[in-house]
Amino acid sequence: MEARDLAGIKIPKSSPLVIKMVVLFILMICGIYVLSVFTNQTTDITESNLLGVKLFDESCVAPNVEEEEIPYIHFPKPQTFSREECRCNPVRNFAIVSMQRSGSGWFETLLNSHTNLSSNGELMGSSERRANVSALYSTLDKVYNLDWFSSASKNECTAAVGFKWMLNQGLMKYHEEIANYCKRYDVHLIFIFRSNLLSRRISVLANSYDKEAKLLNGTHKSHTHSLEEAEILARFKPTINTSVLIQSLNSDKRAIMRALEYFKSTRHILLYYEDVVKNRTKLVDVQKFLGLPVQELRSGQVKIHKGHLSQRVENWENVQKALKGTSYEAFLDKDLRL
Questions:
Q1: Any transmembrane segments, and where (predicted)?
Q2: Do 197 and 277 fall into the same domain?
Q3: Which of the four, 59, 187, 294, 326, has the lowest number of CB atoms within 10 Å?
């Protein structure tokens, strides 16, 4: 007997196979559609939600920006405030990359004296912000979307936004992911190191001592803003362990060379602290690198250590013996009266 449907119409015996094929075809079409929707949503999340700076107003133009610089500017749409009349002011992203006791704090205060620049300090000093790649991205997204607030924030009319990032704060550990992020979101890297690594080592030891001794009325300060404070901190002369001095200098040198290698494909500029101190035209180079109108930059910080290195170390003769005949011997004769 032939099968009948609910309406009593005869259905050929071969119909189950046909029905299965039709159903399979429909399922395939639905699957392709769902997959395409999911892919588009994922792309939207990656391009838009992950980093708000890509949610820009397409009506914004930058008439005063040179054509080759256009790929490096953004028009952020912050989630926490409105840029109002400055919404079409182009913004460049940057990060100051350095090592502790390399002059980066002083350098950042100089940059922050620019009326159109916001550098938000050493954000990655918090271990939570560098616990994994997702934590890093979350912090970067907030900074470059102008949603990170600090005393340095210029907010609405900021033309360059960034922060200070030490090599040992996740930068080297996640260097591949961070380099890709920098290239994708046009982050300008400003490398600043000391050319005299012995001077940095002395500063590290002196700063470590003050963390424990707290020479300024029971408080520790890495940077000073008065001559009196600077003179008090400068009285301490560390004793250098010369048995590991070469090893320490080698380690510092390798870290710098690796960083420059890891991020060589990014948009970057390399500065040395000593050069910036002696030649303030370097600050003009940085402002031009960030596409900023050139201004005179100033810092309220007071230099702690002055004079030749021999005046800053307790066991200078031992240091001389340790470095004589090595590739670091030149550090001994550099007079750092900066």
A1: 21-39
A2: yes
A3: 59
- Whether 43 shows a pLDDT value over 50: the answer reads no
| Whether residue 273 is found in the same domain as residue 151 | yes
Q: Cα 96 to the chain's mean position, in Å?
A: 6
Note whether 281 and 315 are same-domain residues.
Answer: yes
| Residue range 294-326, pLDDT digits in tens | 999 999 999 998 889 999 999 999 999 999 999
**Same structural domain, 163 and 271:** yes
**Does 301 share its domain with 234?**
yes
Please report where in the chains the tokens 């920006």 appear, as a residue. Answer: 65
Domain, as residue range, for 281: 67-333
Q: How many domains does the chain have?
A: 2
Residue 36: pLDDT band with limits 50, 70, 90: low
Q: How confident is the model at residue 132 (pLDDT cuts 50, 70, 90)?
A: very high
* 316 & 196 share domain: yes
- Dihedral of CA atoms 208, 102, 259, 163 in degrees, nearest 10, equals 100
Which tops the pLDDT comparison, 100 or 3?
A: 100
- Are 229 and 127 spatial neighbours (Cβ–Cβ below 8 Å)? no
- Per-residue confidence at 15, pLDDT binned at 50, 70, 90? low
Cβ-proximal residues to 22 (8 Å cutoff; 6+ apart), any chain? none
Residue listed under structure tokens 């004079």: 307
The CATH number of residue 223's host domain is: 3.40.50
* Candidate from 209-223, 237-251, 256-270, 272-286 with smallest mean pLDDT: 209-223
- Residue 124: inside a domain: yes
Burial 204-213 (b: 16+ CB within 10 A, else e): bbbbebbeee
Neighbours of 100 (CB within 10 A): 18
- Count CB-CB contacts under 10 A for residue 103: 25
Task: Tell me: do 194 and 163 sit in the same domain.
Answer: yes
- Backbone CA torsion sign across 118, 119, 123, 124: positive
